Known about the structure:
The chain is an alpha+beta fold. It folds into two domains: about 25-200, 2-Layer Sandwich (Beta-Lactamase); about 220-300, Response regulator (Rossmann fold). The protein is about 45% helix and about 10% strand. The chain contains 14 helices and five strands. A five-stranded antiparallel beta sheet has the order 2-1-5-4-3. Helix 11 (about 240-250) crosses helix 12 (about 255-265) and helix 13 packs across helix 14. The longest helix has 16 residues, at about 25-40.
Amino acid sequence: MYSPSAFWHYEVYPTDGIDTVLIPDSNTEVLFAAMADATRCLGGDLFSAALIKMIRTQVPVDSMAAVGFPEQARPLFLSEETRQDVFTKEGDLANYVGGAYLLDPFYRATLEQAPSGFYRLKDIAPDNFYDSEYFRQYYQFSNLTDEVGYLLAREGGAYLHLSLARIEPYTSDELKLLEWMTPWLLVMVERQWQNSLSRPELSSLEVTMHGQLSKAFENFGRSVLTDRECEVAHLILHGHSTKSMASKLDISVETIKVHRRNLYSKLDISSQPELFSLFLSSLSLVEAMSESDPLVAYHSIGRGPQ
């Protein structure tokens, strides 16, 4: 169950029993000037730069990205502002849009109809997410280690998402400041990108591709694995620990280990990184699929064991 944080109360001085956010008097003028500048830039190309400048008056942020999650189409990258010392890896964006987004905890939150609000990655991700191959590929390789996000629910199940990522973990005081900004930031996100989810780019092809990718993920491995082994494979990809998988499937830890060992053997792999690589490689062939399991197409062109 998703529950956005609610540190939206603001007092210049602490009040007993109420979470407070303290902004030094010397910083108030800078903050309001930056908010005014971002407001003036609404609707223009300079908005993203002005927005992250405003956020940085309170909390250092290394990377900001605005993403649209249409209800039945692949994600749309709307804007990005990233410091030069953040590493990027060629092919990350293509892999993300090509199917890896199906494992993104923020995307998964939208499928669960999470309320609009502020979320920290560690609070919505599975318990073993930080040891998952998805995290290693999309966070550690880019030297980012912490992320918070603002989710704005739109009509029809679509969402707008503003991501703020950092090389160093956020402190508790910084998180309170970011939470305090939630109402204003959600309004700004809505005003700037509210029409993006109905743009012409959301063609029938994008809708079709999302449908094919979602179906391919659901059926990943079903041509060679049992239903239970498929469930375990999906949970491994999402970043669940053995204990978490056992709890979700209501079976013992030892039984989970047996299923994992069997599915690795059947897929001719020996580790989570290999499973993640096989998942991405098979989804890249989704347009050539004639069967529901993408591994069939993957094996048919000689990339995997026959």
